[in-house]
Amino acid sequence: MENVQRRYFELGVALILYKWTVLRVAVENHWGGPDSGDKRDWLAGAVVDLFEDGSQVCEEDVEARLLQVMQDEFNVDVDDDSACENARDIMIIYQECRQGNYEPVTKLQLRHHAHSTTPIQIVVEGCDNPDDDDEASDASMEVDETTAEPQPLRGPVIDQDGFEMVQNRNGRKS
Question: Acidic residues bias: where (predicted)?
């Protein structure tokens, strides 16, 4: 998976997890302790990591990871089909991102912005192929290019190596 594809996939997974009602309730009520929000973000990374080693990942693998982390980190037994639905959505996002179609992620992001006071943003810090206009310059994708000046950020920012950047209370990168 190319860099831009990976970034959109990471964003898609995070957006799916942010809208998952069971996980949102667990985080809001600190069922995973005071670091519940960090555990949710870690879960997004753990799901993305399933796809990293090049092995074939199926919907059941993703569902198992979601259920395991919900049990281990939040002490929640998910009895409904929401983990299965989210696993299916994650697999769809993965396939679409691999094909260079970021529209499903963009739709999730727009829905998240419409229903949330804390939007998730992703910053694309350069592309492997600057000649490809479809990757990072399409204005409809709503991806912010970085500038030399620090800008206030409202959500997690992923750096070019795929790690979430730590921000201080003023919203500037530290």
Answer: 128-147
